[in-house]
Structure formats: C-alpha cells, structure tokens
Amino acid sequence: MNDTGYDYSVVRGFAFSALFWLVIGLVIGLWIAFEMFNPALNITPWLSFGRLRVVHTNGLGLGFGLAGIFATAYYMLQRLTRTPLPFPGLAKAHLWLFNAAIAAAAVSLMAGLNTTKEYAELEWPLDVGVVIIWVMFAVNVFAILIKRQEKQMYISLWYLIAMTVTVAVLYIVNNLAIPLNLFKSYSLYAGANDANVEWWYGHNIVGFIFTVPVLAMFYYFLPKATGLPIYSHRLSIVSFWSLIFAYLWTGAHHLMLTPLPEWIQTVAIAFSIFLIAPSWGSVVNGYYTLQGNWDQMRTNYLTKFFIIGVTFYGLQTLQGPLQGLRTLNAFFHYTDWVVGHVHMGTMGWVAMVISAAFYYMIPRITGRELYSVKLANIHFWLILVGQLAWTITMWIGGIQQGAMWKATNPDGSLMYSFLDALTSLYPYYRMRFAAGVVYFIGILVFAWNLIQTVRQEPSAAAEA
C-alpha cells in the first residue's frame, strides 16, 4: 500500500507472474519450432508437438497475456477511479489461484488431458477454476466502479468492462459439457453447431483478451508516457462501441467453405470487413496523438513501443478481415500464413504494448528508476527484428504451401504430395526458429531490466 492508499502489491505480483510465464512459454515455443524441422525431438508423448503446442498457446495467451492484463487492470482501475481496491485480499487470492491454475493447466495438457477445442482445451474441473478466478476479478472491477471517486468514465474503463463481461459469457457458453469422469467430458454441442459455437468463442476470446484490454492499456499509457492528451475522446468512444458491436458476429470467418450454413459465413464476412473501421479508428487516434511531436519516437523510448505496436494492430486488422473473404480463404486457410498472421498480433501488438505498460508502471509502483533505458531500446529492436523475421518467413512459406497444395497436373491430379509441401517448408522453419531466438533474447533483456529495476534502492524521483 502506498501513501495515496492504492494497493500495488497485486499489480507487482501479476506483472512478475506475466514475465515468468512469458519466458516459460517462449522456451516451449522454441522447442516446438525446432520439432517442426527436427521431429526426433518428439522424444516422449509429454514432449510431443501436439501436447506442447497447446501448453505454448495457453501459457502465453493466458499465463503471460492475462497476467499482464490483470496487472495493468488493477493499476488502471485504481488510478482512473481515484479509488483503492475495495477487496485487496480477494485480489491477492486471485493472484495465487491464477498461478496455480496456469501450472495445473500446463501439467494436464502435457499429460494429454485435452478437450481438443481451440483455446478451450482444459477439462471441466479446470474450467470451473477459471470461472471462479474470473468472478474474483469481476467483483473487484465492478465494486471499484461503484465506489469510484472520479465520476467521469475514461475510455480504458469501458474496454475493461467489455472484457470482463464478454469473456465470462464466451467461456461459460462454449465450455458447457457433460462430465464423464474427473478427467474427461464431452461438449454439450455436436457437429456444425459445436464448430459454430467453438469459433464464435475462439475468435472472440482472442479479441477480448488480445484486443480489447490491450486497447485499454494503449489509451491509458500512451498519453501518460508521452505527456500528450489522446487526440480524440469522441473517436475513441465511437471506435469502442463499433468494435464491441461488430466483433461478436465474426467468428464464423474461421469456417469458410465448410458445412456451416452459407448465410452464417456471409454475415461473418460482412462484419469482419466492417471491423476494419473501428480498429483503424484507434490506430489513427494513436497516430494523431503524436501530431507535431513525432520526435518522441526518437527521444522517448516508450513511444516507439506504443506506436509500432498499434501499427501491428492495424496491419493485423487488415489481414484478418481480408483472409475471411472466400477467395483468399480458400488459398490461405490451414497454411502457415495464418500462423504468421496470429503471431504478428501476439509478438508485435500485444507484447509491445504490455512491455511499454510495464516499463511505465513498475518503476512507479516500486518507487525506483528504470534500471536501463539503453536495455529497453535493445529489447525493442530485438523483438521488432525477431517478430518481423518470424512473421514474414511464415507469410512467404504459407504462400508457397498454399500454391503447392492447389497445383495440379494437366490430368487434374495433384502435382505435389502433402509430404512434398511439408519438406519444402523446412528452410522456412529453420529461419523461423532463428527469428524466435532473436525475439527470445529480447524478452530476456526485458525481464532482466525489470528485475534489476526492483532490486535497486528506492528513488524519490521515481516515487514522484
């Protein structure tokens, strides 16, 4: 508890939990990237690609991503409402239960306990745990909003409310299941209905974890870091309501050219294209905030994290809707192009904004100066180069892969076998691994910088 009455212990706890799971998740990511061109690394079922891949996605998406969101949310909620956490003990219990759940999820997935539903692989006992964790967080969110001393609701609060409500609905509806025993359950849905519900959930859980709360961070920390007011509060509000309205209709663009009814596919395409506008509303808002102050990209180390990060968000929100178009989807779907698309968002947009938020936040909650701005700049360039090399490699490989799958001989037979296409990708997989190593080194620099920051003596300047 600091002298203003705000409780930052849980903020610090979630921030360093995020760093821990980030490093663990990336180590697993490098391992499975190596397995893609060296299958001999599948030395036991526990270390097979099929099991480790879901540990990687859950460990980074939930372990790192959600921990970073909870850390910044508990910070922003107190600052924007000018109100301490109503239930700090509940928040601390939330922190400990969260980390226990991530560890249990990793062990269960490595053991092969898997529902096989993307981003919803956990079996029902852990699903119950996730719901309890989310309720613990939601209680503090809505209690602090009810008790808030600042009546004006800044845009970041609206994004946090949207995340809290929508993730709860998505998770509960999609994970409804009939338990067979403690370790196995079966979905309440079947066939095309199951696929439709799953990708309604799958796309939107990404949106409401990797988009909505990260925009909350962007709108809060960009003005704080630059000392500049956000360009347009009205544009931020219009973008928010448009995004929330359209996002929930787009999940079926993952199911183009499948047995799903064509009208549902068409609705998803229409809303996906519509989403470009509200997404770019936030990108433009970020760019115009810096008008006349673009020198901060050179002089303020935090600014480039936010602006390059939101640029990747803008590129992501162009790629995604366009990939939903039937013609492009028929070529790109199931190829490594999509893997590159996803990782541009996670390695670029999400990681860059959370990194900058931590660089701003941790010195202030610990009363210490950042250990090294030079290391923060090195971190930026390493993850930028690593991410670009990673994603561009996968885009090129995905185009080649799609072309080989669809190439035919004059008699209509396939020109290449599946194995021909797979082995042709080995050079790209090696380049992806090398790019991942560069990115990982950048993350180690990030973690070292923050650890050294909190190990320093307190600074009066940082506390101010």
The CATH topology comes to: Cytochrome C Oxidase, Chain A
For the record, the count of structural domains works out to 1
Please report the number of helical segments: 17
* Low-confidence regions: none
**In angstroms, what separates the terminal alpha carbons?**
15 Å
H and E order: HHHHHEEHHHHHHHHHHHH
Q: Name the CATH class.
A: Mainly Alpha
Structural class by sheet pairing and helices: mainly alpha
The radius of gyration over CA amounts to 22 Å
Provide an overview of this structure.
- The structure is a single chain.
- With 464 residues, the protein is mostly helical.
- It has a single domain, classed as Cytochrome c oxidase-like, subunit I domain (Cytochrome C Oxidase, Chain A, Up-down Bundle), CATH 1.20.210.
- 74% of the residues lie in helices and 2% in strands.
- It contains 17 helices and two strands.
- The protein has a two-stranded antiparallel ribbon.
- Strand 1 and strand 2 (184-187) form a beta hairpin.
- Helix 5 (155-174) packs parallel to helix 7 (233-247).
- It starts with 8 loop residues before the first helix and ends with a helix.
- One of its GO terms (molecular function) is cytochrome-c oxidase activity.
- It holds the Pfam family COX1.
- Residues 1-464 form the Cytochrome oxidase subunit I profile domain.
